[in-house]
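Input structure tokens:
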């Protein structure tokens, strides 16, 4: 009787891993026995997360503090990555943010730079340095975290929406460029998720951030993480290209049934 082939789970690299969807995804993949490379800006929090996952789920974690806006950081990360971690099989481009909620004529150019550099350029930088290894191995999966803001535009969110529309376009372009090499590319686009997202957008104003989720049940980061894991765990011949996940109370970017 022929022995069944041993299926080795790929190494998963998650950016922005210390909070929200990134953290929830790290926990979900750790539970499922994947080896993890985790990056984020908050070095102490990142190290604690890695230790927690190793102790709690008996998996292996490699953590590296970096800012995806800085190409030099990502190059240093890739150049110093130990040999046993080179074969990255899944890249979750999760690092991203919204900064401010202002009409264009009153917007902060610093906020614009932060969103463009993180949401667009950071994703591109990381993909540029990880994808060649996937091409060499003729295998891999890139998941870009988009948003309902990449499918619709809402008032006072023009620049954030523009960055997430760019994520949509780049995801499609990556898929076309990488399909000859057997690499899957997917996007996961959440609606309202109760994470640090609004707290960051409103620069630490907790009262204003909390009001975003008043009167309805938003998604939790774990809801999105379960979708990401589901996409990654499909058979080799299946690619779920695009998922829009919304709270039941949300019909569009601007229509939410609040009780």
């Amino acid at each position: 009787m022929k022995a069944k082939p041993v299926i080795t789970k790929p190494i998963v690299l998650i950016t922005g891993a210390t909070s929200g969807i990134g953290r929830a995804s790290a926990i979900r993949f750790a539970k499922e026995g994947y080896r993890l490379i985790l990056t984020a800006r908050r070095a102490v929090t990142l190290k604690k997360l890695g230790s927690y996952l190793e102790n709690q789920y008996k998996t292996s974690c490699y953590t590296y503090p970096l800012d995806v806006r800085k190409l030099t950081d990502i190059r240093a990360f890739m150049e110093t990555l130990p040999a046993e971690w080179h074969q990255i099989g899944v890249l979750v481009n999760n690092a991203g943010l919204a900064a401010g909620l202002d009409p264009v004529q009153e917007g902060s150019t610093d906020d614009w730079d932060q969103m463009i550099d993180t949401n667009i350029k950071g994703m591109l930088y990381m993909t540029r340095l990880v994808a060649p290894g996937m091409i060499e191995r003729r295998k891999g999966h890139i998941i870009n975290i988009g948003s309902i803001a990449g499918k619709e535009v809402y008032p006072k969110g023009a620049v954030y929406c523009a960055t997430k529309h760019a994520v949509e376009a780049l995801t499609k372009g990556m898929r076309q460029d990488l399909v000859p090499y057997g690499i899957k590319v997917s996007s996961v686009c959440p609606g309202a998720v109760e994470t640090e997202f609004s707290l960051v957008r409103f620069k630490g104003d907790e009262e204003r951030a909390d009001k975003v989720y008043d009167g309805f049940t938003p998604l939790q980061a774990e809801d999105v993480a379960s979708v990401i894991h589901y996409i990654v765990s499909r058979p080799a011949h299946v690619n779920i290209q695009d998922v829009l996940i919304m709270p039941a109370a949300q019909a569009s970017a601007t229509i939410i049934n609040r009780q």
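The chain has a mean pLDDT of 95. The two ends are 61 Å apart (CA to CA).
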